[in-house]
Amino acid sequence: MATTVTSSQTDWRQEWFEIEDATYLNLASQSPMPKVSIRAVQAALEANKNPHHKPDSTFFEVPNRIRASIAKLIRGKPEEIALTSGASAGVAAVAYGLTWKPGDEVVTAKGEFPLQYTGWKPMEEREGLKLKIVSPRERFITADDLIAAITPRTRMVSVSMVRFDDGSLLDVPRVAAACHAQGALLLLDVSQCCGALPMDVNQLGADFMVCAGYKWLLGPFGTGFFWAKSEHLGMMRPGPFYWMALMGSHNFAALNFDDPKPAPNAKRWDSPEWASYFNFNLAAMDVSVDFVVRMGPELVAAHNRKLIELMFDRLPKDRFVSASPLDAARRGPYGCFAARSREKTAEVYQHLRKENVVVSLREGNIRVSPHLYNTERDIDRLISVVTP
Questions:
Q1: Between helices 280-295 and 297-314, what is the axis angle to 10°?
Q2: 283 and 309 belong to one structural domain
């Protein structure tokens, strides 16, 4: 386990290996894993030289620790959390688990991350539901846009809490209240904010949440979680489940083959074969999420807000425009900007990458996503490259 460190910026920066060949401002795409996570993977790999040293309890201890850490992070309950291979797995669990009627509506937003379309569009043919795509009336999608689209036929609103393409932050409690007033449910993708913004599922009011683990949770690819509000677990249709989610599976000597019952919690949606200690991704996720909890999303949010506001302040106003809300209360943990045309924006992006300033180009915007290992010097480097 990592040693305890203080909350100062300098101390936290030391928890990552230094990226010597680039200015890395691209955590919203993929997080550099902290030192403690890399060491956990190395230790798990080493332990597999002698698997006979591991007791059966090892299969459950690490997944249970991760559930507990995620529960602390989102103010939920460990039994409401499934460990998945990413955000899409949670959407699929909901899509296949609920009972649908022909004509049921699922509302999402125009330009949403593709999982909203790959998760729900096939259900039109399979279940006869209708995917309704809402366009923003102004620049960014808002709670008002989504609420105006809810009808008596709306069964689900499925959207991101923070948009991947512009960093805008949704007023989730308002959308949740409108959904519930109509008898609809809210599924929230929190991949671009969980671990970087304070989060309380009780205040948000969502019914389901999905999240990738390789961004703000600082884990590796192939990790994530699915959260389901306790009272919804019983309304989900039965389906195939991972054998280690079998009720009583902790006793490997007496497994129930004839009439298997899933555990009475979200564990039934754990990704098969992934959610065990013997997977190196899980070993990394265990310490990564614990690291995020100890670090605190509030610290990340305040640090990033300062750096993004500095970026917006120093960008040449005659060449660039903000592509994210300037009001920090309406923005997630990163910011986007653009040149005066998509072609020019793409040129600027290529120039940044050529100069080893690593950012993302998303839907015509340059996305800048720092973390605690970044400093004002990194923002200065970005500004110097885009300024003639």
A1: 80
A2: no
Using CA atoms, how far residue 1 sits from 39, 41, 105, 287, in Å, is 9, 12, 47, 7
Same domain, residue pair 238 and 301: no
Going from the C-alpha of 361 to that of each of 332, 344, 368, 375, the distances in angstroms are: 17, 12, 9, 21
CATH number, domain containing residue 278: 3.40.640.10
Of 351, 322, 326, nearest in space to 337 by CA: 322
Q: Buried (b) or exposed (e) across 122-143, using 16+ Cβ within 10 A?
A: ebeeebebbbbbbebeeebbbb
What ranges make up the beta strands (E) of 16-153? 23-24, 81-84, 105-109, 130-134
Say yes or no: 217 and 320 in one domain. no
The residue to which tokens 């609920």 are assigned? 98
Query: In angstroms, rounded to a whole number, what is the distance separating the alpha carbons of residues 284 and 37?
Result: 5
pLDDT tens profile 227-271: 999 999 888 998 888 887 888 777 777 777 788 888 888 988 998
Structural domain boundaries, residue 358: 9-34+297-386
Residues 6+ apart with CB under 8 A from 3: none
Query: Is 368 a domain residue?
Result: yes
Q: What is the pLDDT of residues 31-78, one digit of tens each?
A: 999 999 999 999 888 887 888 877 777 778 889 999 999 999 999 999
Same structural domain for residues 88 and 193? yes
* Predicted TM-score of the model (pTM): 0.93
Q: Which of 294, 328, 345 is the last residue of a domain?
A: 294
Please calculate the CA angle 295-75-178 and round it to the nearest 5 degrees. 125
What is the rounded distance in angstroms from the CA atom of residue 77 to the CA atom of residue 88? 21
Q: Based on the domain organization, do 121 and 269 belong to the same domain?
A: yes
Q: Would you state the structure tokens that stand for residue 269, as one six-digit string? A: 């949606």
Which residues on adjacent β-strands are paired with residue 364?
none
**Total domains present in the chain:** 2
Rounded to an integer, what distance in angstroms lies between the CA atom of residue 198 and that of residue 110?
A: 26
Give backbone dihedrals phi and psi of 189, rounded to 5 degrees, phi first: -90, 115
- Token reading at 322: 């903000």
Rounded Cα distance between 156 and 123, Å, is 13
- What is the token pair recorded at 94? 């909901």
